[in-house]
Fold these 2 entries.
Entry 1:
Amino acid sequence: MTRSLLIIVCFSFSFNLVLAQGNQSAAQGDVLKTLQEEGSGDQVSVEVDSLLVSNYNKLIAKNMKSSGIPGYRIRIYSESGIGAKQEQQQMRARFLSLYPDQDAYNRYTEPFFKIYVGDCRTKSDALKLQDLVRKNFPSPIVVEDFINLKSGN
């Protein structure tokens, strides 16, 4: 996987070199397809293994399915059992009333009802938020998650 990633990075670098030499029309479309196309003059032609193409396409499909970008959130609630769903809703409402500038997300991962808060791009931001919410919510936990990118970020 690391080797495939390295090869993809090399292809991306080569693609940028091609663009820098004046072929701006190649900027549209798939990088791998553009590099594989035969050209003349100052264009680059690349032959790649079918396994690399397959892995590349799987990576593209996976990225298209995921919403958001990698980041961090704080888990402030995780319970199961009778009444956990109602408690989850009450905790979320309480959080939003205390921190109206932050977002809160309900999730159900059998058998747990969970609440995640914040959209932190860095772990440092997440740790700051964790310290802030610790006053009102005991045992907050920083977790990696796909976050929503806000227009101000």
Entry 2:
Amino acid sequence: MKTLKLIGMTLLVGGVMLTVASAQKKKGPGILNPDWKPEGGTYAAPMGKLGEKSAEPWSATTQGAAIQGRKANAAKPATVTGEILDFSCYLQIGKHGDKHRSCAQKCFTAGQPVGLLAEDGTMYMLMEEEHDPRRDGLTDFRKAAIEHASHIMEVSGTLSEHGGYKALYVNGYLKK
């Protein structure tokens, strides 16, 4: 998406002075309830990092899980900074920030989807990248999400998008 920028200027048109004010097209939808602040970290200085950076978008287990001779969907390695939040509560009633931390932790424990809220308001669903281990309960990313609910974190993984949905598949959380 390109940014639209107008420089402030005054024009004389037919004896009438017109002022064109500066305007900038904002990326992303914005944050719901921006006055509700995360418990830890800022977008400029995240509290920590989650996930491992990878040169390849998909792990061998994800590539191997493709069926009928197809390949895993197009994706790319990415790192996004944002607030770890409960995807369902945020979309339903705009809940996030330190006042929602304990609720998010309960929701994560009950299996609700984990989300990442970027500074421009873009939402990402977070889940483990490794397909078969995720399916078989052999990953523990959810524990990290519970620990970091309402924290702004730098999250690395595989970015996949389709139909307006964005997902960041986080790798490196195989149970040992």
